[in-house]
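Run 5-hydroxytryptamine receptor 3E through structure prediction, thanks.
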Amino acid sequence: MGEFRGLLIPSLCFLFGAAAVLSELACKDSHSGPTYESLQSVFDKKPFRPATNLSNPTVTNISFTLYAVLGVNEKSQILTTFLWLRLYWYHEFLQWDPEKCGGITKISLPVEELWMPDIIVYEFIDEDKSQRCPYIYVNHTGQIRYDRMLRVLSSCNLEIFNFPFDVQKCSLTFGSYMHTIRDVRVSLALPIEQISENSKKYLETSGEWELVKIQGETDILKFGIDEWDIITFWVTIKRRPVLYVVNLIIPSSFLMLVDIMSFYLPPHSVDRASFKMTLILGYTVFLLIMNDLLPSTANGTPLIGIYFSVCLALMVISLLETVIITYVLHHSAMKYRPVPRLVRVMVLGYLARLICYTRPPSQPETPSNNITTDPQEKMKNVEVSQASPELQQICRDLGMVRAHIDSLRLQQDLEEEWIHVGYVLDYLLFRVYLVLITLYALVITCMWCIWYNL
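Sure, done. The structure for 5-hydroxytryptamine receptor 3E is below.
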């Protein structure tokens, strides 16, 4: 091993020393451009970094254009983009004088014949299957330009709480895979503002996603004692929510509007319960259909999914309230049972004042036990007791009729009181519906304004 190292180091020194002497490529008068022999000598040095002094790092300038956002997979936390990547670096062995080479200042050479910096995207999580450009451009000063199309599947922390008005910020980190900061340095080929403007120009006709801005910064990545030079680009994109507003929010708003209007049906009607059951069934079918449009992650649930669940819960609560009221009003045992004191105080007292419920005025009650309180009535009773048996029988029959009428009136009063309890609960739930839907409309409007102003 020592003998091999002793032979390798002098050979490398001789090789790069010769390259330093032959800093310019040879040209012939009959040829335009460098000769094949001089280029072949450069091709033979492909395994080595093109620097006459290996202590000087090779600077690689990077720029790209975000051409398309192909997809965002919220469940797998993957962002798929399509980039036009452009790299610049200097090849110190590829230099010639244009005046001696027929005025040629730029030539194209095969990629596989020259050394290239191993620049990768650190967030890349899949095999690179994008098409490679087989040629590179070489300037007479030794500057190399390499263009390629890059389909990037990168990991990104996607936030879906504000869906479909969400804004995603993902990073694309470019740097060398093997060469440390002593061998390869990276820098920007274009200003960040120009990269962002070029990307916006090509993304104007894209589908679901819209580019907001691109930010970038250089940094040094450390692993142990080694350091790598990197550039991190922050790509901010926002979703166009028109598709989801039309397919999710508007149909749900229509169904909720129908459910709100159902509160105007009388609570003691059996048709109201069947109508609400049909409406819940329709809303459940709607949730099953829109389940494919909602993103799903293990980190959280979008706000619109919470809203759909709350709407379904309110519809179920309104159905249960209708069932309870129907049971109370149609059950024979409830008709003769007075309203409990706690229910009367809480529902007909506090809740009625809270929702500003006004009870309609009732008819003056006719007392059923004041027959013998009036002196004139006493005299009539005495006279009736002294009358004939037929008249006494008629009086007893009239008393029974009056008692029956009083019992019917008492039953009607109890039924009306239970109906008022149902009306108070109906009005309360109706106002809760209106408050929640109004709050949600304000939240959607604010989110839309924030999305629009980005």
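The chain has two domains: 21-240, 244-372+380-453.
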